[in-house]
């Protein structure tokens, strides 16, 4: 395996990075720090990719990611450059971490106090408090070993997994079975199972198709905490961009790539307005399928249409961005509204695509923590319903579903928004496809199914074009802001390895 100390082999190279999401921003920073001359081309008017911001009439919304998890990853990222996250933004630990409204009228808070959470588990099921401790201990072990030996190291071939050191570190990890299988070993109560599995939404999976290894997310949730960064996730984007500028990255917005020509040492990347950028290397943080099928000629593609058609894509989302008069108590900063049986909703995402009749969804109210995101006397809220990628998306369907979601919020949280909305924007499958060139309008990328995890995800290095690399959620380690930051490191390492 290569290491960050070897990146100096890229000193003096010219690199074009396509796409300004967290994967592209991270890669650009690592390469610039190594001495490369980096130009980043972003399709849209702002950097951040899916972590864009929407500002309307005094309301500021994070359009995509809104949870700040795994603070150690951000510390490690900034630490590589001799910085700390606090030099760019401050963090507030949320209390509660999140609130769950079950649709049978039950409500529960998960909080920073582990003893309180333990008592909550025990209240649902005798003995569940002790098993909560056992579950978190296993989750912590999986996190510590998994991150160091399987996330920060890019094991992209079967031989990497046959290494004795890998086998030794993998011993005891939850590598076999699904999350549903794993959680059922600890908890019988369906609500406790849901609490331990809600993070699968962030991974684009379902309990029965996501590997048990991802129980490590409970360590992230309960032990490491849930935070709100100053100015939201957009503030984190600003911090990484500021770091990139300090390192010398040239950021270009409103510059959608239209074509990649050439090879290592002689690339030409052409934008839609005809401007051409010459470089030794190209890194794409754009949607992997879009890059291969739209920016490259057929003879330079690694994967064909059949390959992309056979993949399992993470959900898209139906989003309502709402500016609301008055407060929205008892909604917390993060709230989840869950049917007591959510199997039907997951089925409409992965098995039989349809708009869910009884959706599980997420509500984000940053104005409960941040006074700057809404005018005085108002609340900032967005609702996110995971829906199937590729789902039919028309104005009429959106209107019908908008009404269903607002009715559902009123019925199951007691918060009636319908006559208080002063700002409303909608975002769904077609918008993900149009704004981000997202395959089937997925909100996240490739789902973390067993057959699409680790070495089964597309490679960071093109096997068809020397000098072309990929970063971001389609590659390892996968979906989520922290994972995309790490993907930037892995891509830079892959480039250095091929140059050395």
TrEMBL record:
<dbReference type="InterPro" id="IPR014105">
    <property type="entry name" value="Carotenoid/retinoid_OxRdtase"/>
</dbReference>
<comment type="pathway">
    <text>Carotenoid biosynthesis.</text>
</comment>
<feature type="domain" description="Amine oxidase">
    <location>
        <begin position="23"/>
        <end position="495"/>
    </location>
</feature>
<keyword id="KW-0125">Carotenoid biosynthesis</keyword>
<keyword id="KW-0560">Oxidoreductase</keyword>
<dbReference type="InterPro" id="IPR002937">
    <property type="entry name" value="Amino_oxidase"/>
</dbReference>
<dbReference type="Pfam" id="PF01593">
    <property type="entry name" value="Amino_oxidase"/>
</dbReference>
<dbReference type="GO" id="GO:0016117">
    <property type="term" value="P:carotenoid biosynthetic process"/>
</dbReference>
<protein>
    <submittedName>
        <fullName>Phytoene desaturase</fullName>
    </submittedName>
</protein>
<dbReference type="GO" id="GO:0016491">
    <property type="term" value="F:oxidoreductase activity"/>
</dbReference>
<dbReference type="InterPro" id="IPR036188">
    <property type="entry name" value="FAD/NAD-bd_sf"/>
</dbReference>
């Amino acid at each position: 395996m290569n290491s960050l100390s070897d990146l100096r082999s890229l000193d003096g190279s010219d690199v074009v990075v396509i796409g300004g999401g967290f994967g592209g921003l991270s890669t650009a920073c690592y390469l610039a720090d190594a001495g490369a001359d980096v130009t980043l081309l972003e399709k849209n008017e702002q950097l951040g990719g899916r972590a864009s911001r929407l500002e309307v009439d005094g309301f500021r919304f994070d359009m995509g990611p809104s949870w700040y998890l795994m603070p150690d990853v951000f510390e490690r990222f900034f630490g590589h450059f001799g910085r700390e996250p606090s030099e760019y933004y401050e963090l507030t630990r949320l209390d509660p971490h999140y609130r769950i409204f079950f649709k049978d009228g039950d409500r529960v808070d998960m909080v920073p106090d582990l003893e309180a959470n333990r008592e909550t588990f025990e209240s649902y099921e005798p003995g569940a408090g002790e098993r909560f401790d056992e579950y978190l201990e296993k989750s912590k072990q999986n996190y510590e070993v998994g991150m160091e030996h399987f996330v920060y190291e890019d094991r992209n071939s079967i031989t990497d997994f046959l290494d004795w050191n890998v086998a030794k570190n993998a011993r005891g990890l939850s590598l076999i079975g699904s999350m549903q299988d794993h959680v059922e070993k600890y908890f019988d109560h369906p609500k406790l199972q849901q609490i331990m599995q809600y993070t699968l939404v962030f991974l684009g999976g379902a309990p029965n198709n996501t590997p048990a290894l991802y129980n490590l997310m409970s360590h992230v949730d309960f032990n490491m905490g849930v935070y709100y960064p100053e100015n939201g996730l957009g503030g984190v984007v600003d911090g990484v961009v500021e770091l990139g500028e300090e390192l010398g990255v040239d950021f270009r917005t409103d510059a959608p790539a239209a074509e990649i020509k050439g090879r290592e040492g002689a690339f030409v990347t052409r934008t839609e307005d005809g401007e051409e950028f010459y470089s030794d290397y190209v890194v794409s943080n754009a949607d992997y399928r879009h890059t291969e099928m739209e920016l490259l000629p057929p003879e330079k593609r690694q994967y064909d249409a059949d390959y992309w058609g056979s993949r399992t894509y993470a959900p898209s989302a139906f989003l309502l961005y709402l500016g609301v008069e008055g407060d929205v108590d008892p909604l917390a900063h993060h709230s989840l509204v869950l049917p007591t049986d959510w199997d039907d909703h997951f089925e409409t995402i992965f098995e039989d695509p349809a708009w869910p009749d009884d959706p599980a969804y997420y509500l984000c109210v940053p104005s409960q923590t941040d006074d700057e995101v809404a005018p005085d006397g108002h609340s900032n809220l967005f609702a996110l319903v995971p829906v199937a990628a590729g789902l039919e998306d028309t104005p009429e369907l959106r209107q019908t579903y908008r009404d269903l979601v607002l009715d559902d919020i009123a019925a199951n949280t007691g918060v009636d928004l319908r006559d208080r909305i002063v700002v409303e924007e909608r975002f769904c499958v077609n918008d993900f496809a149009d704004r981000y060139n997202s395959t089937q309008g997925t909100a996240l990328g490739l789902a973390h199914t067993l057959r699409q995890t680790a070495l089964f995800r597309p490679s960071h290095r093109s096997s068809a074009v020397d000098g072309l690399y990929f970063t971001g959620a389609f590659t390892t380690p996968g979906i989520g802001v922290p994972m995309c930051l790490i993907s930037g490191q892995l891509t830079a390492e892959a480039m250095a390895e091929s140059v050395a």
